[in-house]
Amino acid sequence: MESSTVVLYPSPGIGHLVSMVELGKLIHTHHPSLSVIILILPTPYETGATGKYINTVSATTPAITFHHLPAIALPPDFSSEFIDLAFGLPELYNSVVHNTLVSISQKSRIKAVILDFFSNAAFQVSTSLSLPTYYFYTSGASGLCAFLYLTTLHKTTSKSIKDLNALLDIPGVPPIHSSYMPTVMFDRESNSYKNFIKTSSNMAKSSGIIANSFLELEERAVATLRDGKCIIDGPTPPIYFIGPLIASGSQVDPNENECLKWLKTQPSKSVVFLCFGSMGVFEKEQLKEIAVGLERSRQRFLWVVRNPPTESSSGAKEFELDDILPERFLARTKDKGLVVKNWAPQPAILGHESVGGFVSHCGWNSSLEAVVSGVPMVAWPLYAEQKMNRVYLVEEIKVALWLRMSADGFVGAEAVEETVRKLMEGEEGRAVRERILEMSGRAKAAVEGGGNSRLDFLKLTRPWTDQ
């Protein structure tokens, strides 16, 4: 009997890679007869700790094969802008991907090719080979409503998004101010904007779209997508909500890890956790405001601090917390808080009994981890689509509190103090805590046998397992 393969083509950044690998694990767990091959692009930019992560997955799940594409010299005029690279590299690699898919299909039958939206250039390759091609949208249903509606938005105005200064009426989600859209989409003449429009258009023509969310978390958005209201000028492909798909993470020893040892000594639900993702870096001035706000809030806290950009540009990876935080802050708060440098085991921390709140950058992976763990959030978006996620999390899903910030994103100590206290002690905090606990229960039920996400996953994979 001929073997069958599913090929996954993630964007190489750690946030996108992890969710795609989790999808690969899910496919392997439920359909061990399907081979899973993940294509890995070499990159000229920082992708987070992907090498170490890939090695760990290879050791623990040998059934997943990582196929590293060979390095290609970049043309001298190739843009070094991150989004241009994220879309442009896959385009450069189309002939390599074509040959790779042909080579795989000589040994096994390719049942599906699953693309990250940044890997959009490969859509023309896989479809030219008549391979069923799906997109894995690493964010949720609300974000997908906006993404698929882009082509309509593009046709209904001749202005760039940066010049609109208006609330956007996108089906399935609350009104979103144009300034909350990702900045890389602000100028309709830019390459990044054109790439997003092209990807939105291709997704509408694909064999199906897979989203990392679950029906019960985003009911209105899911219903709107399934009713075809986000793609106005043609049919909507099947959309599968198979989340929450989050990394189980490397097993961290609670007796060894500094954060988990400290949390063990804290009262139940008393600690607010502050962590801002793999790219969440603040200037010294902002770090000082956070510190002052935390101290004044009188709440217990666990805070992950990264090297400020001015420091890291000198190439110095190591830094001293005392040099970038207010004088004697660590000494004054040692009974109330713990500050750690650069990294902490986020899933394990969010799942800890002592943690009662999460100040987050609104990255979708982190938001799902908080939902699964039942930890309410303060929404502090930094980049990409995070300002849009804030609207969904605060106004639609109601599992986070809004944080006051200036137009340039700066947050003063007073806003930190007020919102952290509100989250941990106030009525609004109590309301989002109750809501997220309810969602946590729904999240777990969604992926169990008979749950909506499990049923959607089986619907997605059924054609791949038919001989």
TrEMBL record:
Any idea which UniProt keywords this protein has? Glycosyltransferase, Transferase
Q: Which Pfam families match?
A: UDPGT
InterPro entries in alphabetical order: UDP-glycosyltransf_plant, UDP_glucos_trans, UDP_glycos_trans_CS
Asked if the Swiss-Prot or TrEMBL record annotates the protein with the keyword Glycosyltransferase, the reply is yes
Record keyword Glycosyltransferase present: yes
EC number assigned by the record: 2.4.1.-
Annotated Gene Ontology MF terms?
A: glycosyltransferase activity; UDP-glucosyltransferase activity
Q: Which family does it belong to?
A: Belongs to the UDP-glycosyltransferase family.
Protein's name in the database:
Glycosyltransferase
